[in-house]
């Protein structure tokens, strides 16, 4: 009879297991890279906020130590804060090594510049 043929056993029994063994480490690596990327972006956003906070405080003519302390509070852990006055402007730079893979020669760096309040625009006395 034509519909009563016996099926032979399938020889692809371990094929799905072999594919999973190859694909699973790749998926884990991609997931780890995505998580690391999100951590770097979060650190960058914190650095932007810290630099802006420090620049606003320095523009109010707060002492440089107070400005650096305020910026460090808003910055990620381990960040370096630099405050420099350049005439009637102040520059705050915040740098930090990225989280998790801190051994890489890569760092997140953000800076903010603000005009000092009460400073004359033309450099002369009012």
From TrEMBL:
The keyword Transmembrane helix applies. Residues 14-56 form the TadE-like domain. The keyword Cytoplasm does not apply. The chain crosses the membrane at residues 21-43. It comes from the Bacteria. Keywords: Membrane, Transmembrane, Transmembrane helix. This is TadE-like domain-containing protein.
